[in-house]
Every structure is written in C-alpha cells, then in structure tokens.
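Input record (one chain):
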Amino acid sequence: MATNAEFPPYEYHDGDAVVGIDAEIAKAIADELGMELEIEDIAFDSIIPEIVSGKADMGLAGMTVTEDRMQSVDFSNTYAKASQKIIVTEDSEIASPDDLKGVIVGVQLGTTGDIYVSDLEADGTTVERYNKGFEAVQALSQGKIDAVVIDGEPAKTFVAETQGLKILDESFTDEEYAIAVKKGNTELLEKINGALKTLKDNGTLDEIVAKYIKAE
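The corresponding structure, as predicted from the sequence alone:
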C-alpha cells in the first residue's frame, strides 16, 4: 500500500508506525484476503506513479476519484465521503469559496484541492503548492498566503493545533474517497471491492471511522 502519512486522521505517524483510518482499512482488507500488508510512505503526487510502475499494489491516501486520475489507475468502490474545506485566519475577510478569486491560496501538491483551486487561476488566484498539508497551514499562520484548501478532517486537526485559524462553514467541494490500483488489474480490484463490501456489511468500516472521527 502506498500512502502519504501527512493526512490525519486518515494516515499519519505514531512513532515509526503509519496509523489512521486508511491504514486500518488496508489492514482489514489484507486480513480479509489473507494477504500481508506493507505500508510505503511517499509523497502524495508519487502514489499513482508508484502504482502504475507496479511498485505498489494499491494506494490509500484519502484519494478522490477524478477523471484525470482514472486515465492512469482504476478505483475501487467508495469507502468514505469527504469535502474540501477552506482554512483562513480568524480575522480574514474571506467568507466563502467565491472570495478565493484573486487571493493567494495554499494547497497540498497533487491533491484535489490543488486541482480545483488551479481552476481559479484564470480569475487571478495565485496557487502556492506544498508537499505537506501542514506546511500550507504554517504558511497561512505566518501570513505568507491568504487561505488553505484541504480535506475536511485534516483541516480540523491542523486548525486545532494552530492558533488564530478557522474553517469556513461552506465547503469548497464535496467528494468521495476510493482505493487506487493498477489500470487493468481487475482481479485485485474485484477482491478489494469484495472485501470492502464485507467490511461494510459487518460494521468494521464504521467502527474504524468512529475510532478517529467523532460524530458531530
């Protein structure tokens, strides 16, 4: 499994171990299929190339299904819903996605936040790309950029750890997470989808998510 362990609560480091929702789901899938799980922590924008090259069998990294990504890899059925949220300073005049036009927005390189915010460049928005989501949040805190667009759950974690920031109520986008596999590897894809169905039906998926995300 290829991932980027800078994305709490889906994947992050606990000492030397990679833990989180995706790590536990991957382990549950491996157990269901009688396979051994090995987790590789790499840059987010290297995950799909790693799968395409055959160095990784699957990618779990809070990855959204997009048409562009589907040209390179195949995706499993959805296992989680998510949204892109906007982080700003508490005194910011930015109040909605429309206000991102013409300002400087930080994103994590290669994420859907990067993809969607890049569409605003035609409206005068400057996109600053960072290898890690927290680096974008730090830049916001230091006044180097005006906002950050990133997935909702990591946004909550980053804002809780950084004074003076807030998350806007209105989402930038809504999306779904799925597991990436090498294009044409239908055998593995069918096994993963079968395991996901079992884990959903027996409540394991909900139990894993509930460990990390408390109901609001």
